[in-house]
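Quick illustration, no need to memorize.
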Amino acid sequence: MISTYDFRLRRTATILSVAIVTLSAIAAITGVLISFYYEPAAGGAYQSLKWINTEITNGLLIHTIHDRAGTLLIGVSLIQMVVMFLGRQFRSSWLTAWVSGILLTLTSIGLAWTAIILDWSQEGYWRFRIELSTIEAIPLIGSTLRDVLVGGGALNTTTVEHLYTIHSYLLSAGAILLAVVHLWSILKQEKEMKGELVAPELPAQKEVELT
């Protein structure tokens, strides 16, 4: 049996799950629109995004929505984990929701990280280099992982292409799939637990002695 408080938290988790799917869809749609004009190349990435922001109709709006949707996706995913924890949704029947939620949070962070260098700006370039040195320091797999991300040598067009592929195809598809699975699992569990809702207990009535 569950209390009204727990059920309300689970309903909040459902609302957040819908928001996560919506944000994932918005980020994906705006990303596709941007990809029509974006050039994944060291020399062309910055100029293509600048052109999108200044010359393409509603380009700046679409670009801004894409960035904000990605940022909000991270925030809402983290809040979702807190809500699920407070609602004591960590029992075995919520395994699918927990695993998909955690993977979704990591994927959304990965999307933001892979986008660092896609604008080929000075800030993004040097930030990526610093974080790349941290990755390279990982024992056993650091060097291999760096080569996969960078493309072997220095940061160049190959690096932008690799990060663009990971960002636009692998992580984006993964985020949408995980968001749908997470929503499905939350809805399924909420439906099963509606019958467990406990009505608030009323104060015990005092028996009136008959005289």
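DSSP finds seven helices and no strands in the chain.
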